[in-house]
Each structure stands twice: as structure tokens, then as C-alpha cells.
Amino acid sequence: MQEITIWHNPKCSKSSEAMEIVQDNRCEAKVVKYLEAAPDKNQIKTVLKMLGISPREMMRTKEDVYKKLKLEDEKDDEALIDAMANHPKLIERPIIIKGNRAIIGRPTERIAEFLRS
Fold first, then answer.
1. Burial of 30 (0-12, 13-18, 19+ CB in 10 A)
2. What was the pLDDT predicted at 3?
3. Which of 32, 82, 102, 104 could form a disulfide with 97 if both were Cys (CB 3.0 to 4.6 A apart)?
């Protein structure tokens, strides 16, 4: 079985639900509490490639820091990646990584299928 990594925020109900789904599917996972051990720019870029999405699609656009930094007007992907590296609260959660693929576990129903694929 491929190694599974979860970018997890224990205070988030969806992230906790994702952890339960992983456990229910008898998968062992490396848990990265990304608010405590923030991913760097290169890690974020790697996960973005795995997800196949733009930096903005990986961001929590309703967070206060998103508004405070005026990121809604930012057009430069590098600046958005910098913002996520410097303010990991902006990163959507949970992110489940398996091999060279990843998903954002919302809705959480997607997670079990992803783990089996």
C-alpha cells in the first residue's frame, strides 16, 4: 500500500472526519499538523501539482487573513503560494496525499474512494 499523508487541523470537524475515514479504511497515515509545521513553498507547489488546481483553489478565501492581505485582488500565483506558506491557515483542509496524487477531502465522501483507488 502507498504511504498516505494527511495535512490535518485537529480543530476542524471535516479534517477530523477525514482522519476517521482513513482509520475506518484501515490505512496508516502520516499526519502533518500543517498549522504547527507549515509546509514551505516547494511543498505547496508539489501538492498543487498533485491536486491539479490553482493556488487560489487551495485557499480558504473566507479566512480573515485572506481579506486582511487583500488576496482577492492578487493575480500572481507565486504571491498566493507565499501567502499560504506564511499563513498556513489559508490552506484548505484536509488534504490527503497518496503516492503522487492528492485530493482536498471536501466533501469527505470523496476520501474513501480515493483511498481505495
1. exposed
2. 86
3. 102
